[in-house]
Amino acid sequence: MAFARLSVIVSLALGAAQLANAALTKRVTCADGNVTANKACCALFPVVAKMQSDLFDGAECGEEAHSALRLSFHDAIGFSIHGGKGGGADGSILLFNATETAFHANGGIDDITAGQFPVFQESGLTPGDFVHLAAAVGTANCPGAPRLQFLFGRPAPKAPAPDLTVPEPTDSVTAILARFADAGFNAQEVVALLSSHTIAAADVVDVTIPGTPFDSTVGTFDTQVFLEVLLKGNSFPGNGSQPGEVLSPLKGEMRLQSDFALSQDSRTACFWQQMVNDQTRMQTQFKAAMAKLQVLGQNTRNMVDCSDVVPVPASFAGPIKFPATFSQKDVQQACPQLRFPAISTVAGPAPTLAPVPGS
């Protein structure tokens, strides 16, 4: 009898597990043939296709993809866990673009808002859903990126975010960490979010050199930026000539003052160094930090997980390498308690980086 009862219990447990797994893997086939976990997400597949064709030049990891990711950050960070600083990830930067693009910290955002607005108007989405879906889709076009989460169902924004909520490259580490803490992020999450700089370029930090990349592999979502910010060496004319910009040892590369300061500060230096040549760590931490950022100010209980509409990024071929002529001896290490990873060097002469096309 005991064995019989045990057999029944085991059978019931297995049945419950099978039902749970079936619920987790339930799929819906949309009218256009796409498959998703929730019927509400079917409406997003045509929008994703439109974004790829009309915004991202056929799914390229280009200037528009970089700018879409930047736009999502500048939209969402206008928020405080203490209240009184905007609606967070609500798309206010798109709907009230005339107001928010005039803020000093949002310099250069006007191009991507102008590019996104007509596509947004055709999409049927709220501004917040459009901005944050575009960020996830654009990022997915970059090899090595994580597949970002996307929750669907943001209500329309009520008002523009206030000024002075976006950290600037001239800010001190203390000011940057305080602003992020006010939005609910710790120091490790700040460093994780800066992974976005691996596919970024600057247009307005120094207007004389638009499209200047932050690392030598700007079309790949890798940890190269964390390595190159740590390099010391000779500088070149035009590097470090404007507020917020510091000397870079790579010709044609920009190094933000805030990135360098964070890489050297005792509160963040070890988090920074841990990212170097650890693609999995960077992907995991960036994805988690972005999942938090992109729902700031939102009631996630009223939202639907439509992450499966986001394209799957190509994998990272890796590993990263020191740019030609650089090696371990050129690293300005600020976290000596951690062993610096062994990294080889690209063969050849010192590189000169080209501006990012379309900037």
From TrEMBL:
N-terminal signal peptide: 1-22
Gene Ontology MF term list: heme binding; metal ion binding; peroxidase activity
Residues annotated for heme b binding in this entry: 197
Entries under InterPro entries matching the protein: Ccp1-like, Haem_peroxidase, Haem_peroxidase_sf, Ligninase, Ligninase_C, Peroxidases_AS, Peroxidases_heam-ligand_BS
Annotated cofactor note: Binds 1 heme b (iron(II)-protoporphyrin IX) group per subunit.
Ranges where the Plant heme peroxidase family profile domain occurs: 129-339
A Gene Ontology BP annotation from the UniProt entry: hydrogen peroxide catabolic process
Enzyme Commission number: 1.11.1.-
Cellular-component GO terms for this entry: extracellular region
Cofactor(s), names only, from the UniProt record: heme b; Ca(2+)
Alphabetized Pfam families for the sequence: peroxidase, Peroxidase_ext
Residues at the catalytic site: 74 (proton acceptor)
Keyword Heme among UniProt keywords: yes
Alphabetized UniProt keyword annotations: Calcium, Disulfide bond, Glycoprotein, Heme, Hydrogen peroxide, Iron, Metal-binding, Oxidoreductase, Peroxidase, Secreted, Signal
Residues that bind Ca(2+) 2: 198, 215, 217, 222
Localization annotation: Secreted
Binding site for Ca(2+) 1: 75, 88, 90, 92
Covalent S-S links between cysteines: 30-42, 41-306, 61-142, 270-335
PANTHER family, per the entry: CATALASE-PEROXIDASE, THYLAKOID LUMENAL 29 KDA PROTEIN, CHLOROPLASTIC-RELATED
UniProt similarity note: Belongs to the peroxidase family. Ligninase subfamily.
Protein name (Swiss-Prot/TrEMBL): Peroxidase
Naturally occurring in which organism (per UniProt): Crucibulum laeve
